[in-house]
Design a protein that fits this description.
Layout (H helix, E strand, L loop, with lengths): L3 H6 L3 H33 L4 H49 L3 H7 L1 H26 L1 H16 L5 H44 L1 H6 L3 H53 L5 H42 L21 E8 L9 E8 L4 E6 L5 H7 L8 E6 L2 E2 L5 H7 E4 L8 E2 H5 L8 H10 L3 H6 L7 E2 L8 H15 L3 E5 L7 H14 L4 E5 L3 H4 L4 E6 L2 E6 L1 H7 L1 H8 L4 H4 L1
Parallel strand pairs: 3-10, 3-11, 6-9, 9-10
Antiparallel strand pairs: 1-2, 1-4, 4-5, 7-8, 11-12
Helix pairs in contact: 2-3, 2-6, 2-10, 3-5, 5-7, 5-10, 6-10, 7-9, 7-10, 9-10, 14-16
Length: 576
Amino acid sequence: MTKLLPKYLWPYRLPLSIVLVLVAVQALANLYLPSLNADIINNGVVKGDTNYIIRTGGFMLLVTLALGVCSIIAVYFGSMTAMSFGRDVRSAIFRKVMDFSQKDTNTFGTPSLITRNTNDVQQVQMVLVMAFNIMIMAPIMAVGGIIMALREDVPLSGVLVVVIPLVVGMIAIVAIKALPMFRSVQKKTDRINQVMRETLSGVRVIRAFVRTEHEEVRFDEANADLTRTQLRVNRLFALMIPFLFGTMNFSTVAIVWFGGLRIDSGGMQIGNLSAFLQYVMLVLFSVMMAALIFVMVPRAAAAAERIQAVLDTEVDVCDPDDAVEIENPKGVVVFEDVEFRYPGAEDPVLCGISFTARPGQTTAIVGSTGSGKTTLANLIPRFYDVTAGSVKLDGVDIRKLKLESLWHVIGVVPQKAFLFSGTVASNLRYGDESADDEMLWKALSIAQAKDFVEKMDGTLDAEIDQGGTNVSGGQRQRLAIARAIVRKPKVYIFDDSFSALDFKTDQQLRAALRHETQDATVIIIAQRVGTIMRADQIVVLDSGQIVGIGTHEQLMKSCETYQEIVYSQLSREEVA
């Protein structure tokens, strides 16, 4: 937490300073009250001075009232600072993750990133709320209590020499043993999150394959694993609390016993014993409050380490220092001897890829499953960076371009069409916020989605669930295509975006697209031969390498791999 706290608390140094001052005032007032109480007993009760008791007691009531006001203000500013800290850290994590490449995201895993931005931040936030109101006060009261106890009676203070090291030693042992356990708790929380996400996302598959019981067992195992670890932690702290209370009670007995002997010998007054007992209780109570904080500190420290790991990640796909922008993009995409391998992989997924996709032309990428088609498409918007060679846009290496400038030129329709919760219009305007209704209807018409949107309750204002789960797969694909059309990019990338469409709709959509995209570069990745037969250029991949480039007619004569793909879907009569 040494790196996380200073950076994100510094903007709130003013309210934090107010908290520090008010908490210090409370601590000093708490240390002052027992001495007034001793004066009442020594000068008022023993001597029978009622006026002194009323006068001093009234002053103590005023101090107590002021303490209450200070406490309310301190809690308010402390809570505000802690909540603001949590808000800023969550925002920082979110913005950092938004800059992550696919490689960075895969390194942490989606469930872990969600846990770090929610549960982990909450752990640190809770400790700060407690710390601003307890941890700051505890050392002041502990040190001040020791000084005041010595002021009351030095010989009797020997009790503290025995008690305080015992308590501090117990807390230190528990904290050292608890820290690795709390790290484990956070990892097991990630696992619970992962299993739950997989179950919710794959609920249809689970039911279709009658694997409900299997998933229940898998969740129960993860849940039981987390429970066992948490119980071990709780048992550890369960030993500490009785020890602390027992120490406090034995200390009280010892003080009363030896204090009574001191009073009997005339070395101490009754009021001083009362004040001494209160000071010792303040010291032990402060130590106990610190102990309660230390129950949470190890887990917060583990959470802070995980948060810092995200914030310290060096993003590998980012704007270069001398980033350039393309002012008048044309959309010429050139692959020059491109190689790509995933982190840790021995063999490259793509090797020696060289071709050019030009405006006004449709370039199709085909190949068997696992040949690297989607990976190739992901290199253009820099979801990954090439490991060798280069991808150029209008003659400029995309690694030299400003990312926003690059992304404004490209319209991507991913393999898995994803829609956001909201309305049809809000999803389409994701491509262009300034698009009016006329532009939206035009895009829907081109994407062959106008008919079913008109039938939806609310048309453009019809509700879309998260992920587009309330529309069919084909409708989801057409809305995703319409979203890209609204953007009017110079480069269209369709990553198997027509797979859920019937042949008639596919044909109508491609015909409408040809007119709309006649000045743009179109790159289509498809499994269906009918989708790409009329492409101006077809690139055939096999095991990550190009085995053929040309038109359909040219490849049917020269590329055996392409012939196999075609004949696996069409008969020779249909091809002819």
